[in-house]
Amino acid sequence: MYKEKIKELLRNFKEGEITEEEFIENLKYLPYKDINLAKIDTHRSLKFNFPEVVFGQNKTYLQIKRIISELKKVYSNLIVTKVDEKIAKKIKKDFPEIIYFKDAKILAFKKEKEKNTGYVCVITGGTADIPVAEEASITLEIIGVKVKRIYDAGVAGLHRLLDKIEIINKAKCLIVVAGMEGALPSVVGGLVEKPVIAVPTSIGYGVNLNGIAPLLSMLNSCSPNVVVVNINNGFGAAFFSYISFFLNK
């Protein structure tokens, strides 16, 4: 797979035409393995120092099993998100060492040792938002980032949030997960001088519109330190916080 390209890079490195850093940089964009049902990126961790991540929703048990089998040839760890519990139980029979994080709906092979590089604070508006928040929290913990959770601290009772202001202020960044009207990230953004990653959820009554209402609220935030990921995208929030505040730090 791309043998000639790799040989060329090796020759260039040996002859001093490129540096070691340039050699590694070129390898970041090589290669992938085509298994028809998926194209397996075999160098993701070289690029981001982050496990390969597979979106599990709507994939069958056999598809997930095949993808994991191929990835395990390359990676010591990987993350599969949005995995139904029934499929996860079948996967565990094939890979007994794999861990299923039920609340987060995540499969992974291990958690890295916690790094002493600060922490991310993950906040939810309500208890119903916890599954999305856990997707973010568990993703970070798998790669060794410390997480502090403040759950069920929405705008309907701000004393629950203000009571944790010291934890909030000491975080490197904050991931704020909320449904309903989606006001919580703006409130948190107004309280702190840290970046806030807002995650709208599809939790709420009819005009919540399956998460569109809080998504629009968050996009219209008056707090300039708030950025927004897609509806229910706890993983996306975790990944962005990692590459922004922990990668190569």
Number of structural domains: 3
Poorly predicted segments: none
How many H/I helical runs?
Answer: 11
CATH topology call of the largest domain: Rossmann fold
Number of strands: 11
Strand order of the largest sheet: 8-7-9-10-11
Mean pLDDT: 89
**Class from helix and strand fractions:** alpha/beta
N- and C-termini, Cα separation:
33 Å
Query: For the CA atoms, what is the radius of gyration?
Result: 20 Å
Could you outline the blueprint of secondary structure elements for this entry?
Elements: H1 3-14, H2 20-27, E1 32-34, E2 39-41, H3 44-48, E3 52-55, H4 61-71, E4 78-81, H5 85-94, E5 99-101, E6 106-108, E7 119-124, H6 130-142, E8 146-150, H7 159-162, H8 165-170, E9 173-178, H9 184-191, E10 196-200, H10 212-219, E11 226-228, H11 234-245
Parallel strand pairs: 3-4, 7-8, 7-9, 9-10, 10-11
Antiparallel strand pairs: 1-2, 4-6, 5-6
Helix pairs in contact: 1-2, 6-11
Which features would summarize this protein structure in a list?
single chain; 249 residues; alpha/beta; Rossmann fold; 3 domains; five-stranded parallel β-sheet; four-stranded mixed β-sheet; 11 helices
Give an overview of the whole structure:
The mean pLDDT is 89. The protein is an alpha/beta fold. It has helices spanning 3-14, 20-27, 44-48, 61-71, 85-94, 130-142, 159-162, 165-170, 184-191, 212-219, 234-245, and strands spanning 32-34, 39-41, 52-55, 78-81, 99-101, 106-108, 119-124, 146-150, 173-178, 196-200, 226-228. The radius of gyration is 20 Å and the shape is globular. It contains eleven helices and eleven strands. The protein has a five-stranded parallel sheet, sandwiched between helices. A four-stranded mixed sheet has the order 3-4-6-5, with helices on both faces. A two-stranded antiparallel sheet has the order 1-2. The protein has three domains: 1-30; 42-108, no CATH class; 119-245, Rossmann fold, CATH 3.40.50. The longest helix is centred in the middle third of the chain and has 13 residues, at 130-142.
